[in-house]
Structures are given as structure tokens and as C-alpha cells.
From TrEMBL:
Alphabetical list of PROSITE patterns matching this protein: THIOREDOXIN_2 (PS51352)
Organism: Shewanella schlegeliana
Pfam families reported in the protein's UniProt record: 1-cysPrx_C, AhpC-TSA
NCBIfam families: AhpC
Subunit structure: Homodimer; disulfide-linked, upon oxidation. 5 homodimers assemble to form a ring-like decamer.
Primary role: Thiol-specific peroxidase that catalyzes the reduction of hydrogen peroxide and organic hydroperoxides to water and alcohols, respectively. Plays a role in cell protection against oxidative stress by detoxifying peroxides.
Protein name: Alkyl hydroperoxide reductase C
Length: 189
């Protein structure tokens, strides 16, 4: 039986990211103390991937205003990330760190490695400031993700983290009513 990654603590890793025109070391320690998104995709210079990374770039300012850092990860090298960033208008607008994972350590840590191809599935993980995974979503390679829906999920995760005893119902948006589970609600929803 497969154990859920939800509420598990991120595993140690050490990698290099292309970020703000330079290469920077990144470890699991960099994800602590703030909300983080680790956003896996199969490969640079492909087809669905740039649409997803561009969509994330379009939502990055909103995520930053929510105290969230985004880390995109593929099994490409940080050198390949730099080349892609320099050659594509869509990727060129990315301001978040692009982590290279050529050994597949991070990709395996999150359970999204396609071993026979050496590529990552489309995995999105939301991590709280304590390093615990609160949202895990994995897509097949042909199914692109929506950063707008990710923003909503993070808003719900942040709300639940700061409002003990409350939960967010389906399609909840900030400012809408939440639920306080109790025996009185059983069968009433």
C-alpha cells in the first residue's frame, strides 16, 4: 500500500537553481519559514511545460503577496534552465527559482519520477512554513495545470492553518463562509 505524502515533512536535498540571472544553491532548508510551492514538470524546451511555467509566472506576484515562494523543478540541469530562460519569451518572464534535478533526487523525494524516462510527472506540492506538505497534485504529462486554481488552494491551506477548527468547503474563496465540523453538522450539508 502506498503511504500518502500529505502532512509528511520534505526530505533533504541539495541542488542548484537558475534565479535572477545567476546560479544559486537550494536545499530543503530554503523552503522552511514560509509557504512554498514545488512545481515539477517533465522537461525544458517542450510543449505543455512552457504554458504552465508561463501561467505560474503570471501569478507569481500574487503568490509573493501571499508570502509564497515558487520553485519549479525538472530533471534538466540549471544550465539548461538558463538557456531556456534566455531563448524563450514565455520562460524569460519567470522570476521564481528554476531548480535543476539531473540526479532525480528531489523528483524521487516527492514520488513523481518516471523512472523509465528520467523525467518528472506534473506534480504540484504546497508546503507550509514547517516543511509539511499540505497539498499534493499529480497530473499525467498531457494535462496542464492552472496557477489560478493553485492560488485558491493555497489561500484555503493558509486559512485553515490560521483558523483552528474551521475547514474550507469545495470551491471556497477568501471571504466566503467556512465550516466548523461538529456533530450538529452531520447530515445537514
Amino acid at each position: 500500500m502506498h503511504q500518502s505524502i500529505i502532512n509528511s515533512t520534505i526530505k533533504p536535498f541539495s541542488a542548484t537553481a537558475f534565479h535572477n540571472g545567476d546560479f544559486h544553491p537550494v536545499t530543503e532548508q530554503d523552503l522552511l519559514g514560509k509557504w512554498s510551492v514545488v512545481f515539477f514538470y517533465p522537461a525544458d524546451f517542450t510543449f505543455v511545460c512552457p504554458t504552465e511555467l508561463g501561467d505560474m509566472a503570471d501569478h507569481y506576484e500574487k503568490l509573493q503577496s501571499m508570502g509564497v515562494e515558487v520553485y519549479s523543478v525538472s530533471t534538466d540541469t540549471h544550465f539548461t534552465h538558463k538557456a531556456w530562460h534566455s531563448s524563450s519569451d514565455t520562460i524569460g518572464k519567470i522570476k521564481y527559482p528554476m531548480i535543476g534535478d539531473p540526479t532525480g533526487t528531489i523528483t524521487r523525494n516527492f514520488g513523481v519520477m518516471i523512472e523509465e524516462d528520467g523525467l518528472a510527472l506534473r506534480g504540484t506540492f504546497v508546503i507550509n512554513p514547517e516543511g509539511e506538505i499540505k497539498v499534493a497534485e499529480v497530473h499525467d504529462l498531457g494535462i496542464g495545470r492552472s496557477a489560478a486554481e493553485l492560488v485558491r488552494k493555497i489561500q484555503a491551506a493558509q486559512y485553515v492553518a490560521t483558523h483552528d477548527g474551521e475547514v474550507c468547503p469545495a470551491a471556497w474563496q477568501p471571504g466566503e463562509e467556512t465550516l466548523a465540523p461538529s456533530i450538529d453538522l452531520v447530515g445537514k450539508i
